[in-house]
Design brief:
- It contains 9 helices and 7 strands.
- By secondary structure, the protein is of the alpha/beta class.
- The longest helix is centred in the middle third of the chain and has 22 residues.
Length: 272
């Protein structure tokens, strides 16, 4: 995918949390391809340093535990020392572990701290350095919009993240800083790769039942949406969520299939 056409990104500096693997790494690659500097935030030093090297002089890896305010501040300071500016923050880091109603208080605290609280604190500490035209993007999810049995922590954290996107958009608007969310559906990533046994074909076959476009998403498609949100092309957008989900969120429980079909397949027979 060509990332060179997003206006206003070249020369800017973007901080991307959770960017040593998966979707975060795809977003970081997108920013670098668009001409931006990228600060890679994560705890996997080997992967972070490898990606830093792959992206060349446009990247800086900062080993950071985003659950520690002092480490967040140190990463921001390192970004400013290296690139002299901070224009964009992408809150992407998250935990997926979820046992739904059976989750313990400790599990609730751990997930919310990573997925929600740390994003809020990173935004709080980065905001004073963001110039007019600065952007914060919170990575939401279709999982934060619909009910699902056996899950609670991840959906609740993503739903709350979508809410603070609105609140922070209003609070930071007078400073000329925009705040947006981008919500993917099923996207080819380490988690989907694991579920599909490493087969993209299998992932697409299953995903086709839930996404009208007939497949799961690709990381570069999500990265392109994030780059758009941070570019001058989106300069009149703030406080909203951008769904990048292959049509997932337009389907109801009937998955877009006519009631006639469901009754034909599921209604009990005459002898039932």
């Amino acid at each position: 995918m060509d990332f060179t056409g997003f206006p206003g990104l070249a020369g800017k500096t973007a901080v991307v949390t959770g960017s040593t693997q998966g979707l975060g790494a795809d977003i970081a690659r997108g920013f670098a391809a668009a001409g931006a500097n990228v600060v890679l935030i994560g705890r996997n030093a080997a992967a972070g340093l490898a990606l830093e090297q792959a992206l060349g002089g446009r990247a800086l890896y900062c080993e950071t535990d985003i659950g520690q305010d002092s480490q967040i501040q140190a990463a921001i300071d390192a970004a400013l020392a290296r690139f002299g500016r901070l224009d964009i923050l992408v809150n992407n880091a998250c935990q997926y572990a979820d046992r739904g109603l059976a989750s313990t208080r400790e599990e609730w605290h751990r997930t919310l701290d990573t997925n929600l609280v740390s994003a809020a604190i990173f935004t709080q500490l980065a905001a004073p350095h963001l110039p007019r035209g600065g952007v914060v993007v919170n990575m939401g999810s279709t999982g934060g919009k619909f009910g699902a049995a056996g899950r609670a922590l991840y959906p609740a954290s993503k739903a709350a993240l979508l809410q603070i996107t609105k609140n922070f958009a209003v609070e930071l608007a007078p400073a000329g800083v925009r705040v947006l969310a981008v919500s993917p559906a099923w996207t080819w990533s380490p988690s989907v790769e694991q579920l599909s046994g490493g087969s993209r074909q299998a992932a697409d076959a299953v995903g086709a039942h839930f996404h009208p476009l007939g497949r799961v998403g690709s990381g570069d498609e999500i990265a392109a949406a994030v780059c758009f949100a941070c570019s001058d092309a989106a300069s009149w957008m703030t406080g909203v969520d951008i769904p990048v989900d292959g049509g997932f969120s337009v389907l109801g429980p009937d998955r877009g299939i006519s009631p006639r079909v469901w009754f034909k397949e599921l209604a009990p027979g005459d002898g039932a």
